[in-house]
Amino acid sequence: MDQLKSDYTKADLTAGQKAALDYAVKLTESPGKMAKSDLTPLREAGFDDRGILDINQIVAYFAYVNRVADGLGVELEDFWEK
Questions:
Q1: Which of 51, 53, 22 lies closest to 38, judged by CA?
Q2: Measured distance CA(54)–CA(19) in Å, rounded
Q3: Which of 25, 33, 37, 41 is 20 to 30 Å from the Cα of 15, by its Cα?
Q4: Burial class of residue 65 (count of CB atoms within 10 Å of its CB; 0-12, 13-18, 19+)
């Protein structure tokens, strides 16, 4: 878990896990640069349309919730600070 937090690219992950995280990072950091080719590694790792949609929706939901919370000045509870 610590490796995932610090640098997921060095963690012991399956091809599917790495593809999903790579996709999530790009969608989070540069959504305007997403291209159809970004789906290729997901498909190669075995994700079907439903799986890709699930990943996309989870990433988008967390982005939305974080922006709402940040925009309203919501502070994290103490247990998230660890």
A1: 22
A2: 14
A3: 33
A4: exposed
pTM for this one?
A: 0.85
Burial string for 32-50 (b: 16+ CB within 10 Å, else e) reads: eeeeeeebebbeebebeee
Please state which CATH class domain 2-81 belongs to.
Answer: mainly alpha
Secondary element (H or E) of residue 47: none
The type of residue at 30 is: S
Q: How many CA atoms lie within 13 A of 55 on its CB side?
A: 23
- Percentage of residues in the chain with pLDDT exceeding 90? 78
Q: How far is CA 47 from the centre of its chain?
A: 15
Domain parsing of the chain, residue ranges: 2-81
Residue 82, pLDDT > 80, answer no
